[in-house]
Amino acid sequence: MLVYLQRFLSTMRAVQGALIVGSSIQIILGFSQIWAICSRFFSPLGMVPVITLVGFGLFDRGFPMVGTCVEIGIPMLILFVVFSQYLKNFQTRQVPILERFALLITTTVIWAYAHLLTASGAYKHRPDVTQHSCRTDRANLISSAPWIKIPYPLEWGAPTFDAGHSFGMMAAVLVSLVESTGAFKAASRLASATPPPAHVLSRGIGWQGIGILLNGLFGTLTGSTVSVENVGLLGSNRVGSRRVIQVSAGFMIFFAMLGKFGALFASIPFPIFAAIYCVLFGLVASVGLSFLQFTNMNSMRNLFITGVALFLGLSIPEYFREYTIRALHGPAHTKAGWFNDFLNTIFYSSPTVALIIAVFLDNTLDYKDSAKDRGMPWWAKFRTFKADSRNEEFYSLPFNLNRFFPPS
């Protein structure tokens, strides 16, 4: 037992150190406005494959996971679609209850249904895979969780720093940066806001880096990135208020300290979430495709860039995954382990591959004579904060923080 404990602590400290080092990438690129400069090479055409593949990112966690427990996953998928789309105009006191709270209502109903199946012994003699996917009492999560546990920095000890781990985490942070950029763009469209100006986009990346730094200090084992499903939920319930996010963050902090409540939510069978992914991730992918309306898709150049970036964005990561399964290591396999981790991580990400290919082709292939075809006349007017009066409403920081981070 002591050996396992020491191994756990060693792993946690190594991950903490890697997260702390990796966070510097987003903090520097964000707050120095370097990412804002990079974003000037983006166009609506270049963003189409990126945002679309952000939405397709967990397609293997969608219906394949629903199928692991069809008696829960299928009703959840059908009920969520019916409530959020077919019955969305149902109102109580002028409030579209089913559109706003479709996710909460359907999750609660199907979760209770799953608990009834578990309590009635429906899964008592089923295979282990089925029990793991369907049961609400797996692993005694609630009984083993403490009532109150307050996390604190460096709980697992002083972080350890290793060059190989740090470079691997830097690659993961860069992947997170690209995927978050696509999600930011999708969120602005679903919220009916103006596209985030370069300064705001870069600022968001910087704050995300601060989040990763805190992850490293608190030893969470995971970094911070945009929640793509929440972006999709924005399109489903049509609620784009920042106050909702602030209240939600308060609830998450509260439940994180009350272990029993956190374990209660962790007991929700994953097929319920998988059914939600089928809708919410699909919404994000469709937002990426909606950017095509600002481009000229009669242009063979645009068709070439979009098709190649989408195909290779799916195909190259698939090659890296299959190669790793067969050879037990990635295609990048040199004596420099840090280089292998960095390269393999980058090319595992579909949005990152799509960004590299789409932005390169878009800025090198007949780009001087194709500004209108690329959608640049519409895109360029949103690049600066003061170019549109609505940006003040959408992107000003709360609590008068703009004096520390003035818009540009």
From TrEMBL:
Domain of life of the source: Eukaryota
Family matches, as InterPro entries: NCS2
Entry GO MF terms: transmembrane transporter activity
Location of this chain's protein in the cell: Membrane
Record key words, sorted: Membrane, Transmembrane, Transmembrane helix
Transmembrane intervals: 12-35, 66-86, 101-123, 244-266, 272-291, 346-365
N-terminal signal peptide: none
Cellular component annotations (GO), alphabetically ordered: membrane
Primary location recorded for the protein, binned into one broad class: membrane
Pfam assignment, any one: Xan_ur_permease
Membrane topology according to the record: Multi-pass membrane protein
Family in the record: Belongs to the nucleobase:cation symporter-2 (NCS2) (TC 2.A.40) family.
Protein name, as recorded: Nucleobase-ascorbate transporter-like protein
Originating species: Medicago truncatula (Barrel medic)
